[in-house]
Design a protein that fits this description.
By secondary structure, this protein is mainly alpha-helical. About 50% of the residues lie in helices and about 10% in strands. The strands form two sheets. A three-stranded parallel sheet has the order 1-2-3, with helices on one face. A three-stranded parallel sheet has the order 4-5-6, with helices on both faces. Strand 2, helix 2 and strand 3 form a beta-alpha-beta unit.
């Protein structure tokens, strides 16, 4: 499942490629994409060309986000290699909160990749060359439901620990205090 904004620069065709590769490994798989942007046409056309089952849905109301994310066995984040230095995809945080395993097709140096890997999720470069390894990981996960559930629990646990309101509030307050001190000495 992919849910969220998706620009063409992030190569939405990778979603179809991964789903196709999972199917080629003998697993029944369907790609679900929740998006209203230009990537929808690209995904629809590629899926039709490669006979990949796909469900394309428009953005859902925010109140339904947890339900949407709960429908995916594996949630996928895409991030272009060049965007990795300055962009942390916020959907990663939502995905972790959903308690599902996450695959990140993103630069390894991105902060979100470290979060994904710390839960047992999988990160690979956002390139066609990564598709076989991603597909192998997804198939292994589908063949081991207890491992899938374990990674999902670890994702949710990380979200609850790292993004607890008190912790975030304290960190924000420290940043503001440090900025105020630095500003006075300038």
């Amino acid at each position: 499942l992919y849910s969220g904004t998706l620009g063409l620069k992030h190569d939405p065709g990778l979603l179809v490629q991964v789903t196709q590769a999972v199917r080629e490994r003998g697993r029944d798989a369907r790609l679900v994409v929740v998006n209203d942007g230009p990537a929808v046409a690209v995904i629809r056309d590629l899926a039709a060309q490669h006979d990949v089952p796909v469900t394309l849905l428009p953005f859902q109301p925010y109140e339904r986000l947890s339900e949407v994310l709960a429908t995916g066995d594996v949630l996928v984040v895409l991030l272009d290699q060049q965007a990795g230095a300055f962009s942390v995809p916020s959907k990663t945080l939502s995905y972790l909160c959903a308690g599902r395993p996450v695959v990140g097709l993103m630069p390894a140096e991105n902060s979100a990749s470290h979060l994904i890997e710390s839960t047992g999720g999988f990160v690979a470069a956002p390139a066609t060359a990564s598709v076989p390894a991603v597909a192998d990981w997804v198939v292994e996960l589908m063949d081991a439901p207890e491992r899938r559930d374990e990674i999902g629990r670890a994702s949710r646990d990380l979200a609850e620990t790292e993004f607890a309101l008190e912790r975030c509030g304290d960190a924000f307050e420290r940043i503001l205090q440090q900025s105020a001190r630095t500003g006075r000495h300038a």
